[in-house]
Structures are given as structure tokens and as C-alpha cells.
Design brief:
Helix content: under 10%
Strand content: over 45%
Number of strands: 17
CATH superfamily: Porin
Number of helices: 1
CATH topology: Porin
CATH class: Mainly Beta
Length: 258
């Protein structure tokens, strides 16, 4: 039998490119609240359209306190809201440890990234990545050469990353403009343990506030509330985390300027 009269034929929706390897789990992880402890002050200064610096002071009672300096340079070629080439990032703490990244576009489909890390002026590690970005797929080659399987849709992203040490799967879903949820599963074959994490994000545009909550299989619960104070370029964040099994509780407060 033919199609009913007046019914439009269904068209396959284009899947689009799933994004780079490093960004596959980003949407899911951004839903989870970041760990906060102590007091943190972040000051960001934009020096030009290409150069930006950030000063961070962290005072903690559980871990070491310190100062971090971050510098970011971006070029003129912009492919998207978060893709500008070339990009150079450097982050150094008060002990002299450095994390540096360089990203460059080699062509319409090829991207390259170099990562260097030192610890207290001693060279620790380096890594080079090469990435091919097609219309509906991404192929990434790194030193570890992990396998990759991913798919995406307009309002959800599901990702499975499999390697020799285990597997990492995540699912991100945007219900609407205010509600986002994420589920993450990490399995480590060497340690023979798995971790399941559920997180959600609530955006309140009228209150200039964002709340992120988290619950994992280790019986840890936590939340972070971020509040912007327009017209001032100031963002306040308050977070608290509790582990019932280990009877651990910590909280933190962050002020971001810029």
C-alpha cells in the first residue's frame, strides 16, 4: 500500500559531526558541579581581541593553597564559538609547574594539538594529537591510540570510549533551555572497579543563576550554585559536597571577576 494521502515522506535527519575526541564527554561533564573547597578568587583580564590572562588565588584547609597564572592567545580563524585557530594556552602555578597546549588548523579537515606538562621545573610528559574531522565522523590519533565510537543528535550526545585500561561512556540530554542532565559510567579493568555518576543542571535566566547537582555510586552528593551580579563583571559560586559512607564533607566559595 502507498503512503496515506497528504503525508510527507520521512527524511533522514543528518547526524552531523560528533566533535573532537577531547570534547566528546564535555557536554555531560559540564552538567556536573565542579568540586569546591576553601575560598577561590579568579580575576580575568582581556588585553586584546587575541590575548587574555587570568589570575587565580586559592586558599584551602584540606589541600595546598597557591596562585595560578593562565595566559591564552587566539588567532584570527574562527570556525565556531569555541574553535579559533591557532590557539596557545599556558597555565603555571606558584611552584613552577606548567601545563601548555598548542592547537593549529592544518586544512579544512585536519587539526593538530600538542600538550606539554612540567612539575616543579622538571619535564613530565608530552602528547601530540592529529584529528581528521569529516561531515559525520571524527578520527583521532594520539600516543595512546584509543578506539573511538560516538554519535550525536541536536538535543543529546551519547559517547563510548574504549581502551586497554577500560571503558568510558556518557550520555547527555538537553530537556529544554533550563534543564540539562548527564549520566557517566567509567570502568577500570586494571583496578577492577566501576563508577556511575548522575548530574543535572538548572538554569534560571531571570535570576542570573545556575545550579548543578551530582550523585554517584560512591554515595557522594554535591551541588554548586553560581550567581552573576550584573552590571558588575562578578560571579559568585558556593558549593558543598558530602560522602555518606566516608563521613566526609567539604564546601567552597569562589569569586570570579571578569
Amino acid at each position: 500500500m502507498g503512503n496515506a494521502e497528504g503525508r510527507a515522506p520521512r527524511r533522514a535527519q543528518p547526524r552531523g559531526n560528533p566533535g573532537s575526541f577531547d570534547e566528546l564527554h564535555r557536554l555531560c561533564k559540564e552538567v556536573f558541579p565542579p568540586q569546591m573547597e576553601g575560598v577561590k578568587l579568579i580575576v580575568t583580564k582581556t588585553l586584546s581581541s587575541h590575548f587574555q590572562v587570568t589570575h587565580t588565588v586559592h586558599m584551602s584547609t584540606l589541600g595546598p593553597s597557591g596562585y595560578r597564572f593562565n595566559a591564552t592567545f587566539v588567532g584570527d580563524r574562527q570556525l565556531g564559538p569555541t574553535e579559533v585557530f591557532p590557539t596557545l594556552l599556558g597555565d603555571m602555578d606558584s611552584s613552577g609547574s606548567l601545563n601548555a597546549q598548542a592547537l593549529h588548523l592544518l586544512g579544512d579537515h585536519l587539526r593538530a594539538k600538542a600538550v606539554f606538562q612540567t612539575h616543579q621545573a622538571k619535564f613530565v610528559t608530552w602528547q601530540f594529537d592529529g584529528e581528521y574531522r569529516g561531515e559525520d565522523c571524527t578520527a583521532t590519533l594520539t600516543l595512546g591510540n584509543p578506539d573511538l565510537l560516538g554519535g550525536s543528535a541536536p538535543n543529546w550526545v551519547t559517547t563510548l570510549n574504549v581502551g586497554y585500561g577500560g571503558a568510558h561512556a556518557s550520555y547527555y540530554h538537553r530537556a529544554n533551555e533550563q534543564v540539562q542532565v548527564g549520566v557517566e559510567l567509567e570502568a577500570n579493568t586494571r583496578l577492577q572497579e566501576s563508577t556511575f555518576t548522575f548530574g543535572y543542571q538548572l538554569t534560571l535566566p531571570g535570576a542570573n543563576a545556575v545550579f548543578r547537582g551530582l550523585l554517584d555510586s560512591n554515595w557522594s552528593v554535591g551541588g554548586v550554585l553560581e550567581k552573576k551580579l550584573p552590571p558588575l563583571p562578578v560571579t559568585l559560586a558556593l558549593g558543598a559536597f558530602l560522602n555518606h559512607c566516608r563521613s566526609r564533607f567539604h564546601c567552597g566559595f569562589t569569586v570570579t571577576v571578569g
